[in-house]
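Quick one: structure for this chain?
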Amino acid sequence: MRNTRTYLTAAAIIALAAGVAGCNGGAGTLNSGASIDGNWMSTDGVTATTFRGGGFQTRVLATGETVSDGSYRMVDGRTVQITMRSAIRQTTSVVNCNLVTPQNLACTGAEGQQFALTRSS
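Got it. Here's what it folds into:
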């Protein structure tokens, strides 16, 4: 089971990194009150993340399993700092994200891994 979790996490990170380039184009209008509250999906459709009131949870869509949770804060109108606890690796890390457009969030982890999320309805 642990190998399956490791594989799913690695696959999601690799697929998400490939999607970052697609999120860096286009100029969206953001105001100083921009928020990431709501539902977001990984660009490969493997995971869904819900941000609400300073906390978040990410789960695998196929199984419903929670793979990470934690807290977040808006640093400014475009920058989000996420403190993430991995349920798989039992570690805590900081991820910095850029709200590229109101619908696209491009993130980089402390170890340089990149991933992207798209706002879902």
